[in-house]
Specification:
Elements lengths: L1 H18 L10 H8 L29 E5 L4 E5 L7 E4 L10 E4 L2 E4 L13 H12 L2 H7 L4 H8 L1
Antiparallel strand pairs: 1-2, 3-4, 4-5
Helix pairs in contact: 3-4, 4-5
Length: about 160
């Protein structure tokens, strides 16, 4: 009887092994799997040495530093330089376009200490009149720029 049970058990294991499926080929190609897993395709590629989880930052990942410096001619103004600053920008002094120069870090603006001179504030009286004529087209200043005297231009431009 013992032999019959052993024979039945062996027959059971052989039949279970016979019904087991043979391994099939993966439904995705090795190139597709490599693209999904982030590893190079083909047999020559190097494999990744460690797992990187999306919820965990890789080593060496720090918040980027934000520094802003503007040239004030002379001098500079700066802001940022620590981990608490998240946004910054700078504009150098350019009086030709009316830019005094400034830096902005996290919405706080620091201006260059000296302002740009007002347009047409330098030069001779005639040069200033020509500058104003170019900027505004003012009749009196255009008349002065063309060589007219003060009283003459006042009469002409009314």
């Amino acid at each position: 009887m013992k032999k019959a049970w052993v024979f039945a058990a062996v027959l059971l294991f052989v039949s279970v092994a016979g019904f087991a499926q043979t391994p099939s080929k993966a439904p995705l190609s090795s190139e597709v799997l490599a693209a999904i897993l982030g590893q190079p395709a083909g047999s020559c590629g190097t494999q990744q040495n460690e797992l990187v989880f999306a919820a965990k930052r890789p080593k060496g990942w720090e918040k980027s530093l934000c520094n802003a410096t503007a040239n004030c001619s002379p001098g500079t103004v700066s802001c940022g330089g620590n981990n608490s600053v998240t946004s910054c920008s700078a504009a150098d002094r350019n009086c030709a376009v009316g830019e005094r120069g400034h830096v902005t870090c996290d919405g706080v603006t620091t201006w260059c200490p000296t302002t740009c001179p007002a347009p047409c504030s330098t030069g001779t009286v005639i040069q200033r009149a020509c500058c104003q004529c170019d900027l505004t087209g003012d009749c009196f200043n255009c008349c002065r720029c063309d060589g007219g005297s003060g009283p003459h231009c006042a009469l002409q431009c009314g």
